[in-house]
Amino acid sequence: MVQAGRRLQSMTFEASSFDLRRSLHFARAVLDDKSQEALWDTNTAQSARELTLEDILEEIQELKENHETITDEAAKGETVRAFGSKNLWRRKQEKTARRPGVWVQRWLNVFGDFLSSYSGIVEVVKGVEGQYGGLAFGTLSVLLAIPIQKDHYERDIEDALDEFAATFPRLDSISTVADGSSDSSDRIKKLVARAYGEIVFFARECIKYYSDTSLGVRKQIAEIRHLLAEIRWESEILAERRIAELIDRSRTIERELVNIRAASRQKQVEDDEKTLLELQSLLAIDKADHHTNDGRYKALLDEAFSDVFPDPDLSSRMLLETFLAEPSSLTWLNSRESSVLNISGENGGFADDTTLSWLFYAPLLLKSELERDEKILVSSYFCQISPMMHASTRPWLKDVLSSLFFQIARRHPGLLRSGFGDFASLFEGANWRIDASSALGEAGNGLISLLSKLNSDDTVVLMVDRLDQSCLEEKSDMGQTEFLEPLEWFHNVAKRATCIVKVLLVTNQRACGRKDGSLDRWRARAARRGTTPHAQNPSRPQHPKFPNGMELYWNVDSSPPQAALINWSSRAGGIVGLPQ
Questions:
Q1: Dist CA 364 CA 63 (whole Å)
Q2: How many other C-beta atoms can be found within 10 angstroms of the C-beta atom of residue 483?
Q3: Where do the domains of the chain lie?
Q4: DSSP assignment letter at 510
Q5: Is the dihedral of CA 398, 400, 402, 405 positive or negative?
Q6: Full-model pTM
Q7: Residues whose CB falls within 8 Å of the CB of residue 446, separated by 6 or more in sequence, listed in order
Q8: pLDDT per residue over 118-176, tens digit each?
Q9: Where on the phi/psi map is residue 20: left (φ > 0), alpha (ψ -120 to 50), or beta?
Q10: Is residue 572's pLDDT more than 50?
Q11: How far apart are the first and last CA of the chain?
Q12: In terms of C-beta density within 10 A (0-12 exposed, 13-18 middle, 19 or more buried), how is residue 79 classed?
């Protein structure tokens, strides 16, 4: 017996060979426990150097392909030895649970599933020392081979392997969760190492069980179950801790992003303010410019027409309603194309002590409503900021255009973030300083360049009250012929701009050149140039009546960019229908 044990110890352990199963079958008959221990040590030591997962998988596949044939041959041998035994064998074959081929195939399937799951944890342990892979796979190879030689099927062991197969995939993912050097991570690593060892011990106890039905299998199953539960608890605790850490880190990153965005916005605001200050200095615009102060101008109108309009707010609303009721006003306001609207009229005999125009009450109220729409940029200028206009207080037309440009840039600072150097060069150039005509051209080019940065569906509204009170040259009067030059300037801007530009001008009737026909001649020249096609019929003016007794004279060009001329005049010394 001792010699037989030594002979078995010197045998080479090959998991993919059937010699291992025959040797182990013979060992169960001739060896005692001590000899089996020696066989265990010899074979597992050799398998640690030679056996791999692929070897076991190949053996499982080979067993699945050949086992039914082997079982049938054995059954046929039984029929040769005894006809009665053959009948008994056939009756047993009818009971599926006791057919050797069925349970062996099931054993191979369960063992294969278990091996696929357990291989994940073996790979983790192999990262520490490569020979641990061969040790585990060698042990499992012995466990695979022994039950094939048995004539009975142990349900508990199959259930345990099935349970472990469902549990080990979670162990395979623990290497990611336990990444780190914390106490919980170290504990999970130790538990994984224990799980690796316990499975090896479990396989060894199963081998003993199949060899001599010794005790220990169920105890080993219980220990593995307890170990897996402990690993699950520890991993859940660590996962929750990691999740909490990730949440805290995410919140920290979010706060940092908020701070970065706020700092970026603040930096952008500061840069925009710096650019606007440079532009304001470049255009020589006064910070306390009363020409753009809506509240102050409204108070000036209220004071000038206090005798005529005891309730200015009510009168303003009535004038706005009347203004919006006119077809030309609605066309100018609602059209999605650029247009110019010129409202011209006189105060009549009810306000001889001021040269201010009461007509701007309606546009002033309209402006406050338009500014509520963030998609509309409104820029306005009041040429007359005193009850009576004197030659010494007339604004220079270049200042009017500079103010309109600056207001658009201030309302939309992003327009200056690229290309500010070009604007600076334009307003610092000689053409801007030489004469009025050159300044008009440079201002038009600059404004069109600024508006080109807007979207095509954006709307810009330019409002100028008493444009006729401005002057082309500093300290000069605006003549009737000279008035047509800025009027054509606004017309060209509306025509050339890529966005929607709506211009509203309020002028004195005499400044529009109705008496000498200069405006009609300008419109005729524009029509010949093809810039302002129109279809008005001056011989058939329409005279819709205002409720207050005033008459409106208007005509409208039919094609964009539209240029409408509205003439408001009062035939009476007072305004009928308004509170006196």
A1: 97
A2: 24
A3: 2-245, 284-569
A4: G
A5: negative
A6: 0.52
A7: 405, 423, 426, 427
A8: 676 667 666 656 666 666 666 666 566 556 555 444 566 666 666 666 666 555 555 55
A9: alpha
A10: no
A11: 137
A12: middle
